[in-house]
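Case study 2.
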Amino acid sequence: MQFETEISARADRPAIFVIEPEQVVRSALDYILRERYQTHAFASMDEAMASPMKAPAAVLIGIAILRDRGEEVLAELSKVFATTKILLVAERNSDPVAQAGLKQGAHGVISNPISFNSVCDAVGVAVGAPVFPGEPSRLTPVAFG
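Prediction:
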Protein backbone atom coordinates (compact mmCIF):
# COMPACT_ATOMS: atom_id res chain seq x y z
CA MET A 1 0.00 0.00 0.00
CA GLN A 2 1.37 3.40 -0.95
CA PHE A 3 0.87 6.46 1.22
CA GLU A 4 1.21 9.97 -0.16
CA THR A 5 0.24 13.30 1.22
CA GLU A 6 -0.52 16.52 -0.56
CA ILE A 7 2.79 17.91 0.68
CA SER A 8 4.80 14.95 -0.60
CA ALA A 9 3.22 15.08 -4.05
CA ARG A 10 5.11 18.29 -4.89
CA ALA A 11 7.41 17.56 -7.80
CA ASP A 12 10.13 20.01 -6.72
CA ARG A 13 11.20 17.76 -3.84
CA PRO A 14 13.49 14.73 -4.21
CA ALA A 15 11.59 11.44 -4.27
CA ILE A 16 12.23 8.95 -1.48
CA PHE A 17 10.99 5.36 -1.42
CA VAL A 18 10.37 3.74 1.96
CA ILE A 19 10.14 -0.05 1.67
CA GLU A 20 9.28 -1.53 5.04
CA PRO A 21 6.94 -4.45 5.80
CA GLU A 22 6.09 -3.25 9.31
CA GLN A 23 3.36 -0.63 9.00
CA VAL A 24 4.24 1.30 12.15
CA VAL A 25 7.85 1.79 11.06
CA ARG A 26 6.83 2.52 7.45
CA SER A 27 4.29 5.12 8.55
CA ALA A 28 6.74 6.74 10.97
CA LEU A 29 9.44 7.07 8.31
CA ASP A 30 6.91 8.43 5.81
CA TYR A 31 5.67 10.95 8.37
CA ILE A 32 9.21 12.08 9.25
CA LEU A 33 10.24 12.60 5.62
CA ARG A 34 7.12 13.86 3.86
CA GLU A 35 7.55 17.55 4.64
CA ARG A 36 10.99 17.67 3.01
CA TYR A 37 10.67 15.00 0.34
CA GLN A 38 8.22 13.43 -2.07
CA THR A 39 7.68 10.18 -0.19
CA HIS A 40 6.36 6.89 -1.49
CA ALA A 41 5.87 4.17 1.14
CA PHE A 42 5.59 0.49 0.23
CA ALA A 43 5.07 -2.68 2.25
CA SER A 44 7.07 -4.86 -0.16
CA MET A 45 9.73 -4.85 -2.85
CA ASP A 46 7.15 -5.95 -5.38
CA GLU A 47 5.02 -2.87 -4.71
CA ALA A 48 8.04 -0.57 -5.03
CA MET A 49 9.19 -2.22 -8.27
CA ALA A 50 5.70 -1.82 -9.72
CA SER A 51 5.76 1.92 -9.08
CA PRO A 52 5.80 4.06 -12.21
CA MET A 53 8.54 6.21 -10.65
CA LYS A 54 11.93 4.71 -11.46
CA ALA A 55 14.40 7.32 -10.22
CA PRO A 56 14.00 8.07 -6.51
CA ALA A 57 16.88 9.97 -4.93
CA ALA A 58 17.04 7.44 -2.08
CA VAL A 59 15.48 4.16 -1.02
CA LEU A 60 15.10 3.29 2.66
CA ILE A 61 14.67 -0.46 2.98
CA GLY A 62 13.86 -2.39 6.13
CA ILE A 63 16.42 -5.00 7.13
CA ALA A 64 13.60 -7.56 7.46
CA ILE A 65 13.31 -7.58 3.66
CA LEU A 66 16.98 -8.52 3.34
CA ARG A 67 16.48 -11.28 5.92
CA ASP A 68 13.47 -12.64 4.04
CA ARG A 69 14.68 -12.28 0.46
CA GLY A 70 18.46 -12.37 0.84
CA GLU A 71 21.19 -9.92 0.04
CA GLU A 72 20.49 -10.13 -3.70
CA VAL A 73 17.74 -7.59 -2.99
CA LEU A 74 20.43 -4.91 -2.97
CA ALA A 75 21.71 -5.94 -6.40
CA GLU A 76 18.14 -5.86 -7.68
CA LEU A 77 17.57 -2.37 -6.23
CA SER A 78 20.86 -1.11 -7.66
CA LYS A 79 19.96 -2.45 -11.08
CA VAL A 80 16.47 -0.93 -11.15
CA PHE A 81 17.40 2.31 -9.40
CA ALA A 82 20.92 2.82 -10.77
CA THR A 83 21.56 6.33 -9.43
CA THR A 84 19.70 5.88 -6.14
CA LYS A 85 21.30 5.87 -2.69
CA ILE A 86 20.20 2.85 -0.64
CA LEU A 87 19.85 3.19 3.13
CA LEU A 88 19.11 0.21 5.34
CA VAL A 89 16.78 0.62 8.31
CA ALA A 90 17.91 -1.64 11.16
CA GLU A 91 17.62 -1.86 14.92
CA ARG A 92 21.38 -1.47 15.28
CA ASN A 93 24.37 -0.68 13.07
CA SER A 94 26.18 -3.81 14.18
CA ASP A 95 23.44 -6.12 12.86
CA PRO A 96 25.26 -8.74 10.73
CA VAL A 97 22.72 -8.42 7.93
CA ALA A 98 23.16 -4.62 7.89
CA GLN A 99 26.94 -5.00 7.81
CA ALA A 100 26.68 -7.51 4.97
CA GLY A 101 24.33 -5.09 3.20
CA LEU A 102 26.96 -2.35 3.38
CA LYS A 103 29.48 -4.72 1.81
CA GLN A 104 26.92 -5.55 -0.91
CA GLY A 105 26.48 -1.91 -1.91
CA ALA A 106 24.12 -0.20 0.53
CA HIS A 107 25.19 3.38 1.18
CA GLY A 108 24.33 3.60 4.86
CA VAL A 109 22.39 2.36 7.85
CA ILE A 110 19.77 4.25 9.81
CA SER A 111 19.47 2.62 13.22
CA ASN A 112 17.69 3.06 16.52
CA PRO A 113 16.91 5.37 18.05
CA ILE A 114 15.08 6.55 14.98
CA SER A 115 14.13 10.19 15.34
CA PHE A 116 13.08 13.06 13.12
CA ASN A 117 16.61 14.50 13.12
CA SER A 118 18.50 11.25 12.59
CA VAL A 119 16.33 10.16 9.66
CA CYS A 120 16.25 13.59 7.97
CA ASP A 121 19.99 14.05 8.46
CA ALA A 122 20.83 10.61 7.02
CA VAL A 123 18.56 11.09 4.00
CA GLY A 124 19.85 14.64 3.51
CA VAL A 125 23.44 13.43 3.42
CA ALA A 126 22.50 10.60 1.04
CA VAL A 127 20.77 12.91 -1.45
CA GLY A 128 23.49 15.53 -1.26
CA ALA A 129 21.84 18.21 0.84
CA PRO A 130 24.28 20.90 1.99
CA VAL A 131 26.10 20.33 5.26
CA PHE A 132 26.61 23.48 7.31
CA PRO A 133 30.05 23.76 8.93
CA GLY A 134 30.04 24.28 12.65
CA GLU A 135 26.63 22.68 13.17
CA PRO A 136 26.71 19.58 15.33
CA SER A 137 25.83 16.45 13.40
CA ARG A 138 22.81 14.53 14.64
CA LEU A 139 23.47 11.85 12.05
CA THR A 140 23.01 8.22 12.99
CA PRO A 141 26.31 6.63 12.00
CA VAL A 142 26.18 5.79 8.32
CA ALA A 143 28.77 4.88 5.73
CA PHE A 144 28.43 6.41 2.30
CA GLY A 145 30.50 5.18 -0.57
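Helices lie at 23-33, 45-49, 63-69, 72-80, 96-103, 116-126.
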